[in-house]
Structures are given as C-alpha cells and as structure tokens.
Amino acid sequence: MNHQAPSPRILLKRLRELMAEPLEPQDRLDRIVGQIADNMVAAVCSVYVLRADSVLELYATQGLKRDAVHLASLRMGQGLVGTIAASARPLNLSDAQSHPAFRYLPETGEEIYHSFMGVPILRAGRTLGVLVVQNTDEHAYSEEEVEALQTAAMLLAELIASGDLKKITRPGMELDLMRSVSLSGDAYGEGIALGHAVLHEPRIMINNLVNEDSDAEIARLRAAMEKLRFSIDELLQRNDVSSEGEHREVLETYRMFAHDRGWVRRLEEAIMLGLTAEGAVEKVQSDTKARMIRLTDPFMRDRMHDLDDLANRLLRQLTGHAVDTDGENFPEDAVVVARVMGPAELLDYPREKLRGLVLEEGAATSHVIIVARAMGIPVIGQATGVAAQVENGDAVIVDGDDGEVHVRPLDAVITAYEEKLRLRARRQEQFRALRSVDPVSADGVRVKLMMNAGLLVDLPQLDDSGAEGIGLFRTELQFMIASRMPKAAEQESFYRQVLDHAGNRPVTFRTLDIGSDKMVSYFRSQEEENPAMGWRAIRLALDRPYLLRMQLRALMKASAGETLRVMVPMVSEVGEIREARALMAKEVQHMARFGHRVPRRIELGAMLEVPALLYEIDELMAEVDFVSVGSNDLYQFFMAIDRGNARVSDRYDTISKPFLRMLRDIVRAGERNNVPVTLCGEYASKPISALALFAIGYRSVSMSATAIGPVKAMLLGLDISAVSNVVNAALDDPSNLTPMRALLERFASEHNIPL
Which parts of the sequence belong to the GAF domain (predicted)? Predict the structure, then answer.
C-alpha cells in the first residue's frame, strides 16, 4: 500500500465539520474513524475509551469486525492499547504482533494487520482513551503521521469531555472522566460542604482548534509570548504578588520556561500542523504533562505544576480570558478548588455563595486558610492533584473534619454525608443553645471567650457564636480587598460599623499588619529574602508613620466618646511601643486642636509574637495596658518553622512542653505586673489546645467564631484546678517524658471532657 503523508490541516477541518453536524454519538464516532482512516490511508482506525473501571472499551472502528464494538476491551496496561493508555505515550510498530505486549482479541479479526500506530487521547494530561490506526503491510509510520494522529486525538478528547458518549455507554458502565474520585488532604477548617466545584484558575476551554493561516497563528503566538514574558518580568520587578508560598521562586521558574526556545519551537511546529495557537498550547502542554504526571520526584512534579500554570497564563493572553469570581454562572453552593491562592483572592468571591475551599498546597497557619476559617467554611489543604481531577460544576463534598474530598461522589456517599450533616446540625444546635450560657468551668473559673474577625461579613457571627467581644480585629483585610488605599473617611466608616455592631462588647483593633504574605497591590515594597521576618507590621508603620497616623485618626473618630482598644503587631522591642504611643499622643493633640471628639479612654496593647520580647517582658508590661499573644507567628519564630511551608509546618506539635512553658511564662508575667493577657491566634480554636491554655493560666482567649461552641462545651465540664495540677506538674518535671498531647487526651478521657 502506498503511504502518502497525511494532511493534518485537511483532517482537522473535516473532523471539525463532523463535530458540528447534528449526528447521534455512535454515528459521529463511526464517521470520525472513517475520516481518519481515509486521511491516514489506513486499513483500520479504532477508538478505545477509558471506563471508570480502568478498562479500555472499543467504541468505534473502521476495518475491524463491527460486532466487536462495545464488546472488545483491554485493561489499563494490557496489550498494546493498554500500554499506550498506561504510559500516555504513542506506540509506533511496523510489526505489532512481534511486540511483547501484543494481545490478540479474536472478536476483532485483527490478525491480518501488522503495522500499528496508537496515540493516547489526552486532556490536561489525563488519559481518556486511545486512538489506533493499522495496516496489513509492515510499515513504519513517519513523525508527520504520528503528529497527525495526535492532533486528531485532541478533537476526540473534546468529544469525550463533552459527555455526549454517555448516550452510548452500556448500562452499569461509566466513563473514567465521570468516575467518582476521593482524595485525602489535611483538615484545616472544620465543617462539611456539599456543593459544586469552581476552579480558581480554570482550564481555558478552546473552541477553535483548526487554523486558517499558520503564519497568522504563529504571529499571534509570538505576540502573546511577548506579553506573557513582560507580565512575568513586571511582577518580578514590582514584587506585589499576593500568594502563599515561595511565589518569587515560582515566577523565576516561569520566566525561565517562558524564554525556553524548545518550548516555543514545539508550539510553532504544532501550529504548522494546522492547529490554532490555543490548540498548539493545549497539545504541547498535554503531551508534556502526560510524560511528567507519573514522576515521583517532588521537584519534577513541582515543575509540572509550573508548566501547567504557565500554559494557562499563555492561553489567557491568547484568549483575553479573565477569571470570573462573581458572574452569573457562579453556583449558589460554590466550592473553590485551587492549587494555591492568597487571602485577597479568596475574598474576591461572593461570601454568600461560598461553601468550602480545597487547596493542593497551603498550611494550617497560612492567611488564606485563617481567612477561610473566619468565614466559617470547611477548608482542606495538601489535597495533591485535586485541580486536575475536577471540572467546573462537578459535584464536590468537602469533609473538613476528616480531610476528605469527594469529587463526583456516588449516591451512597452523598446519602452518608447528608446524614452526617444532619447529625452535625443537631450538634451545632446544641452549641447554639450554649450561646447565652456564661463560660464558667465546673470549678467556678470564669473565662472570656472572644472571636477573631476582619470583615463586615464576620460580624453576624458575634451574635450567633455567643462571643463576648472581638479579641482580634484584623484591620489589614480592608486594605487587602481594596484596589486602592482606603481613604481616611472610608476607614472611619468601616470601624464605626464594626463598633456599632459590637455594641457594648469590646473590640480590639490590630493596627495595619501588611508585609510578608499579606501584600497589597497598590503598595510597593522591595524584594526580601525572608519577608516573614522583614519589613512588615509595626516596622513598616514606623517607617511610614503617615499610614499609622491616618489609621489611628480614623479609629479615634469612629470611637469618639467611647473606649478604644488598639494593639500593635510584630513588636520586637519595647522602644517600638513607645514610638507608637508617641504617635498616638500626637493624633490626640491634633484632633483636640481641631475640635474633634476623642475616645473617652484609649488602651494600647502589644502583640507578643517575637520571642525576644520575653527578655524584656517586665519592661513591656510597664508600657502597655494589655498584651495579646499572637500564637501563630510566635510559634513560627520560636520553633524556626515557616508557617507557609507545609513540609515543616506540621512537623512539631504545638502542644509541646517548650512552647507551653513559654506561654506560661507570658501569662505569669501578666499576673506579676497586673496586666491582662489574652491569646488571640488560631491556637485556641481547638478544644484540646484551649484546654492546655486554661491549665497554664489563660483566662481570656480569642478564636474563630465557629470554635467558640466546642470550646465552651469543653470548658463547662472542666475542673481547671485539676487539669492545672496535672499539666504544671508535667511541665516542671524533666523526667516526665509523656507527650503533652497524650497527657491532655488521657485527662479528657478520664474526666469525660469533650474534645
């Protein structure tokens, strides 16, 4: 047989026409394989589709026996077709039957065919099936023929992903693309959500794969590449990316890939085969991802994610597509799925429609997770590979209690979780019944249970949770969600709304804490090697006193005639508190000079987050009205752990002797100096860690609103005197090697304390 080089452009155009015709699914598939066979001058063309049970079923053929359609099948890894699916790589053989993986299927009648070429049908690097051509003679297919078949496979991937093949799938069978998937991650925010997936950076859906003018498409590609490179260079120069983790390193990698000549050459070669620029990006990236997806090396898998993100950025440049966070198609029960994101990006989504958050990365103390918990939604991090498994609109169950994500769940799983939700609702009703109950332990010790907040949407939880006030109001969130610096009048109005909602309940405002991973787009800062310990919080505010003075003025006007409680974050030495107090005094004088009412009383506090303050703790107590322990950063600096690095953030137990001893020293210093001490980090949000805090002397804690019910339920049955004796004895006894967590769990079990 004379094998002439196929024309990919003609083939793609004809296949696109078939895709657009009003045909039944089986008829469409039959005509597609016929068209491919004609164009490739092949005696056989067959399509195998991957089912949910990891079996590749023959869905259409020209040349093999028609009776074999929907009957012939091979398991993943079995035979030549199964080998292609498992490896996600083409197989080009002049004599297929001599290959060790060859498996004869008598129902197909394929024994007369020798030459064989098969390519995986890929979408986002995921194998959906296999496309095969065969001939009777021994023939080695050319690279051009392999490329032509791969481009045809792209259109078949689009057809499979459309869901149209459901109509011809045998009863009881399901395609792999639609199968139920369950993934495990780390539970960072309690709760259960049943909703529909919203990919934070969704894959761009390409509607036009076939080009009319290759030269014009290459010009489009090169123009988009220039814009992409410029945007990455601009981000690196401005350093204003708000995201978790080592975003600078990621962008440096992006820049390297964006200038890689080999990548650009492969894109241009795909265009010359007849693809549009968008189709070329999809093809090259899908091929690359298929090769890399099975790698176990963490470094190489990270590079795979980098390439994925870069390809999406290039597609956005080509299509002008922007992420829609509040469009008409946004579901009422949205579960946001992302590889990684910053707190400001989460806040872009409509709060009333947000039901859960699933991240491939993230750590318990990263700010996006803290914000999500403040919103009261279940959160799961470290759900590896979830973004590749989810399509926009997929049904998703987020189990923030056990760290499970169920994508396209089975009916039995949905039923089980609906029952779990009913049980949880009854438990929440029990917690709501405790809202008006005073937080007093079984042995009569009164404890203040406050809540953390930072947005107006948080304020209804003040009433719902029964919190006695707001122990930490994160003022920076107002700045992070704004596209420009909030004006003084806007800040004043915002703070007044907070105070009005709180009524006679105290609110402690933390002054602006930006820097590190909490950057704002309109505030430029220089690149830092270690931003968590760099120019941030009070350090930034004292160097730019206008920012702090404007905020203090807004706070004073909002609380005129009342008590104003302000605390300063990231204090490293007592001199910084003295400087902050001096600025506050200047603002009081300024307001009085111009006839403005001032607060009746101003209480200034320091957040204790830097361990160095422990060595001048008494001097600090002499300068402040209260101290608030910021347990997240304090633990990070005390244990030398990057709280945004999941590899180490969970390495050490927060309920450990060294950390508890330090926390005890702080509260004892407060007692010694008659200065109130509160702990306002996420540490208090778990009943077991709150139990430890009560044992070592803390009588005021602030936590996420959803944690108040469980912590209060624990407190009401607790004999604080008894647990204090046990915990303090263990802390003082170097020979006691029992882990503190195990000791507390045993105490709770023996005394029927709910944890």
Answer: 24-170
Nearest-angstrom CA–CA distance, 115 and 139:
5
Taking only Cα atoms into account, the Rg of the chain, rounded to an integer number of angstroms, comes to 31
Say if residues 210 and 282 touch (Cβ distance below 8 Å).
no
Euclidean distance between CA atoms 64 and 74, whole angstroms: 15
- Please check whether the domain covering 181-197+333-424 is classified as CATH 3.50.30.10: yes
Give yes or no on whether 181-197+333-424 and 435-751 have one common fold.
no
Instruction: Give the separation between CA 494 and CA 486, rounded to whole angstroms.
Output: 10
Q: Please give the Cα distance from 159 to 153 (Å, whole number).
A: 10
How many beta carbons lie within 10 A of that of residue 10, not counting itself?
14
Q: Which has the higher per-residue pLDDT, 253 or 661?
A: 661
H or E stretch including 537? helix 537-543
Higher pLDDT, 747 or 260: 747
Instruction: Tell which wins on pLDDT, 740 or 284.
Output: 740
Mean pLDDT across the chain = 85
CATH of domain 8-162: 3.30.450.40
Domain ranges of the chain: 8-162, 181-197+333-424, 214-319, 435-751
Question: pLDDT digit string (tens) for 253-279?
Answer: 667 777 778 888 889 988 888 888 888
Task: Say how far apart CA 303 and CA 291 lie, in whole Å.
Answer: 12
- Helix ranges (DSSP H) in 41-110: 79-87
Tell me which architecture the domain covering 214-319 has in CATH: Orthogonal Bundle (1.10)
Give the phi and the psi of residue 615 in degrees, each rounded to 5. Answer: -90, 5
Render pLDDT for 141-193 as a digit per residue (tens, 0 to 9).
888 888 889 888 988 988 888 888 988 998 878 888 777 888 888 888 888 89
* Residue 651 token pair: 């390495």
Q: What is the 3-state secondary structure (H, E, C) of 417-438?
A: HHHHHHHHHHHHHHHHHCCCCC
Residue at token pair 């003022």:
475
- The pLDDT tens digits of the residues spanning 490-543 come to 999 999 999 999 999 999 999 988 765 555 555 655 666 666 677 777 888 888
Which H, E and C letters describe 653-682, residue by residue? CCCCHHHHHHHHHHHHHHHHHCCCEEECCH
Convert 552-619 into a string of H (helix), E (strand) and C (coil).
HHHHHHHCCCCEEEEEECCCCCHHHHHHHHHHHHHHHHHHHHCCCCCCCEEEEEEEECCHHHHHHHHH
Distance of CA 288 to the CA centre of its chain: 24
Longest dimension (CA), the chain: 100
Tell me how crowded residue 482 is: count the other CB atoms within 10 A of its CB: 15
Q: Evaluate whether 339 touches 359 at the Cβ level (below 8 Å).
A: yes
Which helix (H) or strand (E) covers residue 254, if one does? helix 247-258
Question: Would you mind telling me the total number of residues written for the chain in this entry?
Answer: 755
243 pLDDT higher than 50: no
Residue 551 zone, left/alpha/beta (φ > 0; ψ -120 to 50; rest): alpha
Q: Is 232 exposed, middle or buried (0-12, 13-18, 19+ CB in 10 A)?
A: buried
